[in-house]
Amino acid sequence: MNKVRITAIRQTVYPDLMAKYENPIEHTCDVREGEQWISIDGQCPEGLCPSAWDSMRSFVEALARGEGNFYDGWMQNPMSAMISCNDGFRPFSFYLEVID
Question: Where are the alpha helices (DSSP H) in the chain?
Fold first, then answer.
């Protein structure tokens, strides 16, 4: 199976949605831009946010199996994907790519 590198690319924050819908919370996301993890055998890497993993799991597993070209040419690199976590207030975008 392929190894898949997961790179935290960018976080977007929606303060207007947070003010309107979210209860105030002290602690949110620990992910930082540029942070990387390696998935081996399609498994969740240690230290990766469980919620982010839920959003990307099927793509990581497919890439690990050698599948790719999602949505018929969506990505320039067919063995990659750009996936966002499911936090509607402060989603992080992650770049997934097969590595040697």
Answer: 15-21, 50-64
